Amino acid sequence: ADAPGGRDGGGKPATAVARGKGGGGDWKRRQDGRRGGGEEKTEIEVFGEKKERSTAGIDFDKYDAIPVQITGSNVDCFKAIQRFSEAKLTDSLFDNLRRCGYERPTPVQRNSIPIVLAGRDLMACAQTGSGKTCGFMVPCLESLLRSGPPSDGGGRRLPKPCGLVLAPTRELAAQIHVEACKFSYDTGIRCCIIYGGADMREQRQDLEKGCDILIATPGRLTDMCDRRNVSLELVQFFILDEADQMLDMGFEP
């Protein structure tokens, strides 16, 4: 489960310039045959009532006391952010963090966001409730927003997501999907979920509406790929959540 942020009082960031591996342009005005925008749910349906989003009862001093250790090559060049505004996120993503109440990053978020935005691979280990979902979804979404949609995203033909998140259980996948939909709200980026034990036809129909970030369990993803219901050829971000649990359950390359 993710942990919300606190208050930082930071100003609104400047809109980021498109760059990277995408085809450029706006996700809401994409050129791959699929219309962006057109939210399927209202803000209240996605985020809940505003009074339910308050973080006033959370003691962030306890988060600040958590020690952080970073290892790897040239890690000294990465400066942890103290506020989400320091990451210079695109307006739409920053607004969604505000809607969630995520304004002050937790330790894992402070360090993971600048590292992933710099294009580095990352393995993060932190306790449940430390904010790992936000820590990997925010830089993934930000990078996609900056680069723009791919020129060939599959449209309403073969879905070709740019981001892939694997989770060991349908329950965890569902939790990640809920958070991903909050962060991607009103950005033009569409998040989908597939898992075993559910109707494959309905999941396939949802994918055919367009899929930019796919959250999946390994077994159902394998089935979908074998049936050519989804292609992974455009994946730029690959996230393994609870990777140790997946290995314990027998999921191997």
TrEMBL record:
Tell whether Nucleotide-binding is among the UniProt keywords. Answer: yes
Q: Which GO terms describe its cellular component?
A: cytosol
Task: Please name the InterPro entries in this protein's record.
Answer: DEAD/DEAH_box_helicase_dom, DEAD_box_RNA_helicase, Helicase_ATP-bd, P-loop_NTPase, RNA_helicase_DEAD_Q_motif
Task: Give the Helicase ATP-binding domain ranges.
Answer: 113-253
Q: Where is the composition biased (Basic and acidic residues)?
A: 26-43
Output the PROSITE patterns linked to this UniProt entry: HELICASE_ATP_BIND_1, Q_MOTIF
- Pfam families named in the record: DEAD
Q: Where is the composition biased (Gly residues)?
A: 1-12
Q: Which residues cross the membrane?
A: none
Location of the DEAD-box RNA helicase Q domain: 82-110
Q: Where is this region: Disordered?
A: 1-43
Q: Where is this motif: Q motif?
A: 82-110
Q: Mind telling me which Gene3D superfamilies this protein's record contains?
A: P-loop containing nucleotide triphosphate hydrolases
**Could you tell me what this protein is called?**
RNA helicase
Originating organism: Zooxanthella nutricula
